[in-house]
Design a protein that fits this description.
Length: 419
């Protein structure tokens, strides 16, 4: 039998806790629920705490700050903690900062950040990555006070991909009809610039609807190391000389609180009938989701309709008008992308034996890959109908890794450290 692995689990008294009405904090030792220092908050379902907390001690070194909240039903949350380091110096005015990659060269041995420093102001600078190899790296930043006291370091993981500074060839094709590498429509590149604006002529045979264009390029190496695919729409317009019963001034919409309010305005209406709002997940097959009767106003009219239950992912909308004689015409197509709630979470991090990932939409097949800092795939798996997935990492060398999580067209990556 292995050693035990434990997690804290809290069972609330109610199926759904009420609004948060109180919060308190303490350092190091818990005085008991309700006995800590209160925080001034505004009641609500969630909190964002921003403010100053006075340190109640003079003991130097590392301490722990704990914060917890209480609902209107009197239920206390678990505590959330952060380490706090108390320095022996009083003057904490920032006088300098430096950065380094991967390994600590020692205080003062990093690359200095030559900017003006001010307490509480964002630090914005550029870092030089030209000497780093392709793959994953850690960027570390720390600052120094006027008394020469260095702060703790703050680190971030980032990835350097193969350089595309010297593109030598590029080409494109439509609708996933790949003729083969080097055989698509060539792009005339301006090799003196990293920015190229490309004007593409659409084939005369391309019909109205949703299409894709794929661009790929290569640098001085033999391999094609870049590709990008984008979706676009060709709208259908009435033939020249055809008079429509309704002249549409505009048809537009936006995303608002997981709903899609749509609005359209006519410039004139003659023999107007009824508007139908249609929705599609692929831009080809549309379904009517609402109907609005035309007012028949010769000077035009403003209309609106809200889709209160849009699907997730790509959503297309168009307006269909049928006049009193049965003639039909359509508006242009609106496109929105509604992202699914991302419930992905990876823990523990750093990891020693395993990492666990909470998945959402687990009924869909999910492909998992663990990628090392040098780009090597060291683990693959495909799961379905699993909310919690375990990935063994005991056998991996210590270092930085990425988990790539693919569910259909949705791809997410989560970093972790094996130690």
């Amino acid at each position: 039998w292995s050693l035990l692995e434990s997690r804290v689990l809290y069972v609330a008294q109610r199926a759904k806790a009420g609004a948060i009405t109180a919060a308190e904090y303490f350092f190091d030792a818990d005085p008991g629920h309700g006995a800590a220092q209160p925080l001034d908050i505004v009641a609500g379902d969630s909190l964002r705490l921003v403010g100053e907390i006075e340190l109640p001690f003079t003991q130097l070194g590392l301490h722990q700050l704990y914060i917890r909240t209480r609902t209107a039903d009197g239920i206390w949350s678990l505590v959330e903690s952060r380490p706090v380091y108390v320095s022996s110096r009083v003057n904490t005015t920032i006088a300098g900062a430096e950065y380094f990659f991967d390994e600590d060269p020692g205080h003062g041995g990093g690359t200095p950040i030559a900017i003006n420093y001010a307490d509480g102001q964002p630090l914005v600078t550029e870092v030089n990555t030209s000497n780093l190899a392709n793959g994953f790296h850690q960027l570390y930043v720390r600052n120094r006070t006027v008394d020469g006291v260095w702060s703790l370091v703050e680190g971030r993981l980032f990835y350097i991909s193969p350089s595309l500074n010297k593109w030598v060839q590029a080409e494109y094709f439509f609708d996933d009809k790949d003729p083969g590498v080097g055989k698509a429509v060539p792009v005339n590149l301006n090799l003196s610039s990293n920015t190229n604006n490309l004007l593409v002529a659409l084939p005369d045979t391309m019909k109205p609807g949703v299409h894709t264009i794929t661009l790929r390029a290569r640098n001085g190496s033999a391999a094609w190391d870049f590709s990008e695919t984008k979706t676009f729409i060709i709208e259908a317009f009435p033939a020249e000389g055809v008079v429509l019963p309704v002249k549409l001034e505009y048809f537009r919409g936006n995303l608002l609180n997981n709903e899609v309010p749509l609005q359209w305005k006519t410039a004139s209406e003659e023999n107007a009938g009824i508007f139908e709002v249609e929705r599609s997940a692929n831009g080809l097959q549309f379904t009517t989701i609402g109907r609005v009767k035309a007012q028949g106003n010769a000077n035009g009219q403003l209309y609106g309709f809200t889709d209160k239950n849009p699907g997730r992912g790509a959503q297309y909308y168009r307006l269909k008008h049928t006049d009193k004689n049965g003639k039909v015409d359509y508006s242009g197509v609106l496109y929105f992308y509604l992202s699914a709630e991302q419930g992905l979470r990876l823990y523990p991090n750093p990891a020693t034996t395993s990492v666990f990932i909470n998945l959402q939409n687990s009924a869909n097949p999910t492909s998992l890959r663990v990628i090392s800092s040098n780009g090597q795939v060291v683990y693959t798996n495909t799961v379905k109908n699993k909310n919690l997935v375990e990935i063994p990492v005991r056998q991996l060398p210590n270092g930085n890794y990425f988990v790539e999580i693919s569910q259909g067209a949705n791809v997410r990556t989560l970093p972790f450290v094996k130690q």
